[in-house]
């Protein structure tokens, strides 16, 4: 079972495909013979993304997908192809507090002079997790991961207030969920090294809670467009020019870094300041766990402490599950 799951859930945390479900095509536009949404999967490697794989027969043109979440419709273009040559469409607007929200999808393409379609029944991330729980009852590490994911979703709902009366954990067996253990200073990667520079300097760091996993770095600068920031995690570096981080005040900047996988919550993120391409000032190191450590018993912000504890448990169980898969 582990090797089977390893082929489905890779190191970037692509979850197993949903069990096959009947696909219904709209009466109008006409059914497209062979046109179909073949599979739906869940990606949580950086953001929570629902990915659809679609088969579009040769001769059909201009494929696109319309998805609806909470009454809001959006049109998606193909983001690429999978190893089977199926077109991929990705829903990237979901946040952790939306795990209980239904997502519907309709695939369209042009066949001759006719617009044809195929639809995927509504389902939610919560239902997706429940399906996997039922499918693999003996996989303890997977059961823990799914339970911790739902606890993370419910904690985010409570924090943001989104559908807080219908938590995604309601009625779910959470006996496999992780019990939070306090982090210590040794778990926090926070530090600043080097000599502060008056022209470009750090003023703050933390997480934007309630949305996708986003780390922010605040700084002030007196050199305007000469300012840039490099953020690195596990050898992956993203450069942010001044135009991408400036705020309404030209001397104040904020970097929003979204390149953190669920399996990397304990890993160190390094932030470097640059002036005309030359490194200046202090180097900042931080991690998701740094924020958890500082906020794990916070009482100033309502429901924040349970949320950061859930984030920590979810990251640990994601990492443990991937490691359990082996080669």
Query: How helix-rich are the residues, as a percent range?
Result: 10-25%
| Extended strand count | 17
Distance between the termini: 13 Å
Q: Cα-atom Rg, whole angstroms? A: 22 Å
What overall form do the CA principal axes indicate? globular
Mean pLDDT: 88
Count of helices? Answer: 6
CATH architecture of the largest domain: Sandwich
Given as residue ranges, the uncertain stretches (5+ residues, pLDDT < 50) are: 1-30
User: What is the strand arrangement across the widest sheet?
Assistant: 1-9-8-4-5
| CATH class descriptor of the largest domain | Mainly Beta
Task: Tally the structural domains.
Answer: 2
Task: Describe the model.
The protein is 22% helix and 34% strand. Helix 2 runs antiparallel to helix 3, helix 3 packs antiparallel against helix 6 and helix 5 packs antiparallel against helix 6 (304-325). With 327 residues, it is α+β, with helices and mostly antiparallel strands. Residues 1-30 have low confidence and may be disordered. The protein contains six helices and 17 strands. The relative contact order is 0.14. Strand 8 (103-111) and strand 9 form a beta hairpin. The strands form four sheets. Strands 1-9-8-4-5 form a five-stranded mixed beta sheet. The protein has a five-stranded antiparallel beta sheet with strand order 10-17-16-13-14. Strands 2-3-7-6 form a four-stranded antiparallel beta sheet, with no helix packed on it. The protein has two domains: 2-124, Immunoglobulin-like; 185-295, Immunoglobulin-like (Sandwich), CATH 2.60.40.
